[in-house]
Design goal:
two-stranded antiparallel sheet, disordered N terminus, 16% strand, alpha/beta, 7 strands
């Protein structure tokens, strides 16, 4: 277990039903803009490391040797959606890639490099693509404003809207329409994970691997499964299926 740094304010324990004995706490720590040298952050780090070593003196030595995560998390860069804290797992348990609006694209070499390393080297068994409600990136994509360079990135989300135009336009409540687009964007990214040759080859080689689509509700702090998951090549649409040489 890797507890967070000792908070300066009060602590609210998070229920540990998923893993009795492992309790992380919600911290009220806030970054002070007056901490121009980031001394406070380094002090937080020292307190955290000391607390970890007190509980497990060999923890850092053990994880320094290797990492063996079984989960790849592809999520949004939003500061309110920290992967490890949401699923209550410590360092070394989750391999993470994050970008604006958790987009997975066939042309994003950064994301694909993470995916390849996770699948082929780390041999993860689960890939979670996790979107979140109140996503600013999806909110920007659903509108018609210009925001600069990011407009090119938001095009991927606009394409999702186009693919599901009739369903989304039938939703008259703007908040509910946005929530549905967030879900569809997440599912689209999860499908793109499956369409990659990386994942297709892993399945062909008999590797145990499941791709999940989740949505996290910031208002409640709760993640949920979306109605989509894949654990074999049957999830790959025909046009995207590839054959190995």
């Amino acid at each position: 277990m890797c507890p967070p740094s000792e908070p300066s304010g009060s602590k609210s324990p998070i229920p540990s039903e998923l893993d009795p004995g492992r309790v992380f706490t919600a911290t009220s720590n806030k970054f002070s803009v007056e901490d121009s040298n980031l001394d406070g952050l380094l002090e937080n780090n020292r307190k955290w490391a000391k607390a970890v070593l007190k509980e497990d003196p060999e923890f850092f030595r053990n994880i320094a040797i290797r990492q063996e995560p079984k989960i790849l998390w592809i999520g949004c860069s939003d500061s309110r959606v920290p992967a490890n804290q949401i699923v209550q797992l410590g360092p070394g348990e989750v391999f993470v890639h994050r970008n604006i609006a958790n987009v997975v694209s066939h042309s994003d070499l950064n994301c694909l490099s993470v995916l390849q390393y996770a699948v082929e080297v780390l041999k993860v068994e689960h890939i979670i693509v996790c979107g979140h409600y109140n996503c600013g990136g999806v909110g920007a994509a659903i509108g018609h404003g210009q925001f600069g360079l990011i407009d090119n990135w938001l095009r991927y989300i606009k394409d999702v809207y186009r693919l599901h135009y009739e369903e989304l336009e039938a939703i008259k409540d703007e908040t509910q329409r946005l929530r549905r687009l967030i879900e569809l964007n997440t599912i689209n990214s999860a499908q793109n994970v499956c369409h990659s040759t990386i994942v297709q080859n892993a399945w062909k080689n008999g590797q145990k691997l499941t791709v999940h689509a989740w949505a996290y509700d910031i208002d409640m702090g709760v993640a949920k499964r979306l109605e989509w998951a894949a654990s074999d090549g049957n999830a790959v649409e025909g046009i995207y299926a590839t054959e190995t040489n």
